[in-house]
């Protein structure tokens, strides 16, 4: 919805009878060779027609198959009809690992396929990419599935799926289309740092998204972790794999939406019983899910005056102090958060949109630090998880505003309310009313702006509704 659609024109296809190869001659993205499609013996007309349709769809959609890091390679994939052979036999015939072919197609190596079934076989170049692209899992799409549905089912931001697979968010998927997903059940190898083990560190985190770090330690050892200049707030968590006395420690890792693509370092350290500081560095990759949505907001002179540097500075200072609170223990568990507003209210602005305010000349450039839902004035806004009310007041730009502290450096904000239902210092449980939707402050109409910050960093709140960044208390 925020990304331009991929060109919908199908590439023209020519066949080379001698080789039995179907080759798209005008693929704008990269060269794809689809071969062995038509065996020399004749196939029933119906099966030829459906196979041809599949080839056309595949030729159109396969550019999305390659991981972005290999975008300039030539990848080759075959579409092979089953011909009553097993997945393993077909793989052998093409000198590709049976396990890999089975994995890509979501089948077992022993599954016997009919002529109606087309198997996707990676040729050596593509197989090497797929094979080394850990910790990815490849899952075939089911009929009617969209990237958004897949994202929701796996608790992954749709921007991540879109960027990783090179597929626009609104592009149609064909049944069986292989898609790259992060394989959270198979994280990178654990790193042992003396008495502390890094059990998991998210290998790829999108700008504006949240990953996590999970450590285990020997009893009595208290590990610390630092992301750049920010000390991460590690919380001890229960873990089913814990051996006697072994302790697990968890911290979310928030990535600022302005972070450039590239490696980022996390430092893990602890003080040994002999008072020796033991430290190690770990890396993960940040990627920018470009392009961000652009929004130009034209405001009148009165509003422009309220956007003055001084007025903004006062509000920013107040909120910065609030966002950086980090003294409450974690008030949340591995449950996905409850929506702060009922389902069915459309999104009017997504997290991270680049915004420019004009009056009529540009006066202020920023990015959208939250998620906006349209809702009528008076619609109840509720706490998505337990927390303490740390701000409940009228602000210049945010209007009637509430901020909740959920512990472990995680806070959430609710702006432009028509009424505030809590007081600073109150403790709210999940589902408790915090206020009513309105259009106070600088707002173009009634809506809820929902914002989540971790250690002061604004992150995409949608991720928390799917529980994707929460500690694996029940690993798969
Ligand atoms: Zn907003």
From TrEMBL:
Native species: Caldilineaceae bacterium SB0662_bin_9
Protein name per the record: Peptidoglycan DD-metalloendopeptidase family protein
Single GO MF annotation: metalloendopeptidase activity
Pfam families membership: LysM, Peptidase_M23
Domain M23ase beta-sheet core: 367-461
Superkingdom of origin: Bacteria
Domain LysM: 87-120, 143-182
